[in-house]
Amino acid sequence: MGLVVQKFGGTSVATAERIKAAARKAIRALQAGNQVLVVVSARGDTTDDLIEMAREITDNPPAREMDMLLSTGEQISIALLAMAIQSMGAMAISYTGAQVGIVTDSSHTKARIRSIHSAKMRQSLDEGKIVIVAGFQGTDDEGNITTLGRGGSDTTAVALAAVLKQEGGPDKGVQCEIYTDVDGIYTTDPRLVPEARKMEAISYDEMLELASVGAGVMHSRSIEFAKKFDVPLMVRSSFSDAEGTWIIPEQSWMTQNPVCGAAIIKDEARIAVEDVPDTPGISHRIFTAIAAQAIVVDMIAQNPSTKGRASIGFTVPAGDLKKTLALLDPIAREMGARVEHDGQVSKVSLVGAGMRVHTGVAERMFAALSREKINLRMITTGDIKISVLVDKQDGLRALRLVHHAFDLDKRAVTVPPKIIPDQNPNPLSCEKKATLLTQRLANMEGIMVSDIEHQTDQGRVAIYGLPDAPGFCSQVFEAVAAAGIVVDMIVQNHSRGFADLSFSVPLSELERAKSVTNSLMAKIAPDCRVESENGLATIHVIGVGMRSHTGVASAVFGALARNSINILMINNSEIRLSVVVDRAKVQEAGRCLREEFGLVSPA
Ligand code: ADP
Ligand code: ASP
Ligand code: MG
């Protein structure tokens, strides 16, 4: 016997007819000999309507009461679905998050799951009932109702599948199906770019990055669970029986193309803390203060400093701008730094595991944007993603342009005839795996840093005072690519009306990269200063949820600060946080970070 977890999103339970259709899907899975657990969202626009109701009362509703209100949406859906199933002659029982034992922390409206007690679910499943659970909600230790953040029902579904699987699921394994209003994951949101194409499969890492850079089709934390606990997912349409898109561990065919998808976050805000002293502990102070308010810092770009003062640029969701500025004000004043901001920017990103093997992705992306005179306000790269910040008015146009530039509308990939996810892809020994999983289950959403790596074979070229106008970055990377030099990390930050740009290249190519850049600058921007640096190393902190767990960056910066290690450059993504430090300090930095995250040092 297998266990099937099905999740139905808001549109999929919006009308009585659709609830009945969802009921039929659940019954079909039961009749096929499975145990069935269904997670549902609030119907249609219910959650938005509830938020509006609160706004009609007050601009500043207390978070606890907001959760009390929001959780009612899902409660309506579970009761109606249970009625529908029972009226069709099958047994079903509905549970709220609290009733089913989903325990979270107390950060109302963005709570994280701590543990799940599965006894009740199991008992009902064993009685042959279809168990229906309200998505998006849980309860804290004091019994207060909490919610997991918008889109959180995906996370409920995957977390339940993970627990049931790891606690000893049925012999045929656990299948998790996410039913929604699209028939799979597309190369970008098909509502924004109609020429987007459906994918057959996508890797956990790619989906994690895509979700965290704006692909609202999946809640990014649900993918974190899926990856941590080896749960393959299928995203598919609730309106048909068509095959959807698998979200699974990476397979070799997935790197055929450099890019698999694109996404946009329309409402971002850029903050620059300028003229900060370039000494250990500064990033730590800034990001710890922001993390303490559970604000997710999105892009972080810190470039090399000039005259002992650095500028740290980062973005936060536009809705968190006011709060962030208020908390930065006293810190900046104390450091003698200035804070600048821009609340009208959007972030456009490209993601693809193929970036690890294909070169020239940044150049192709920047060239497409520069041809259309779109200015890049900030650039950050990760292992498998690259993001640019553009003016909000250019956002959608930029998304379409980059989608087109990588031929995502003509997606040509040779896919294996049948994609069958490995139910047990983790090659760890049973005993080791069991211990690891028990630890992970005890703190389900705990930070998971899996490795610390360093790289000492790279140098960095920095350009100071690049004009803040379209096309300059694109020309730099065109020239560097034309010289056959591979670029790894790119950071562009803004300061005083100029763009500072730096990028890393193999050490052996550093002098050539500098001279190519110098010749170009002499032609297009003679007032720029170009410098190269060969005494650096990059430390990569690798795991999942590296960006959305607000504590990771501050833990990294804190550990380095306590050991008086200065951070020279920062770059982050959902699966990797990279910091550049002095090469002489790299061993020490690796050691203290391993200690911080409880990792064993390599022999
Ligand atoms: P549900 O209520 O079922 O959870 P959501 O609205 O959260 O549904 O997610 C489905 C929507 O996600 C789609 O209607 C689509 O507009 C949007 N979307 C964003 N990015 C993508 C993408 N890359 N592929 C498919 N859909 C996407
Ligand atoms: N109902 C919640 C929302 O609209 C959770 C979800 O649908 O996943 O965000
Ligand atoms: Mg959703």
Question: Can you put this structure into words, describing what you see?
Answer:
- This protein has 603 residues and is of the alpha+beta class.
- The protein folds into two domains: 3-181, Carbamate kinase (3-Layer(aba) Sandwich), CATH 3.40.1160.10; 262-412 and 452-596, 2-Layer Sandwich (VC0802-like), CATH 3.30.2130.10.
- 34% of the residues lie in helices and 27% in strands.
- The chain is built from 16 helices and 26 strands.
- The strands form five sheets. The chain has a ten-stranded antiparallel β-sheet with strand order 14-15-13-16-18-17-21-22-20-23.
- Strand 4 and strand 5 form a beta hairpin.
- Helix 6 (204-212) packs antiparallel against helix 7 (220-228) and helix 8 runs antiparallel to helix 9 (321-335).
- The longest helix has 25 residues, at 63-87.
- It is globular.
- The two termini are 43 Å apart.
- The model has no long low-confidence stretch (mean pLDDT 89).
- It binds adenosine-5'-diphosphate, aspartic acid (ASP) and magnesium ion.
- Magnesium ion binds next to loops.
Can you describe this structure in just a few lines?
The chain has 2 domains: 3-181, Carbamate kinase (3-Layer(aba) Sandwich), CATH 3.40.1160; 262-412 and 452-596, VC0802-like (2-Layer Sandwich).
Q: DSSP helix count?
A: 16
| Named CATH topology of the largest domain | VC0802-like
Computed CA radius of gyration, to the nearest angstrom: 24 Å
Spatial sequence of strands, sheet with the most strands: 14-15-13-16-18-17-21-22-20-23
Low-confidence stretches: none
> Total domains, how many?
2
According to CATH, what is the class of the largest domain? Alpha Beta
The CATH superfamily title of the largest domain: VC0802-like
Q: Terminal Cα separation, in Å?
A: 43 Å
Q: What is the name of the CATH architecture of the largest domain? A: 2-Layer Sandwich
Helix content: 25-40%
Q: What is the average of the pLDDT values?
A: 89
* Ligands present: adenosine-5'-diphosphate, aspartic acid, magnesium ion
Q: Give the structural class.
A: alpha+beta
Shape: globular
Count of DSSP strands: 26
Biggest sheet, open or closed, and with what strands and sense? 10 strands, antiparallel
Q: Beta-strand percentage?
A: 25-35%
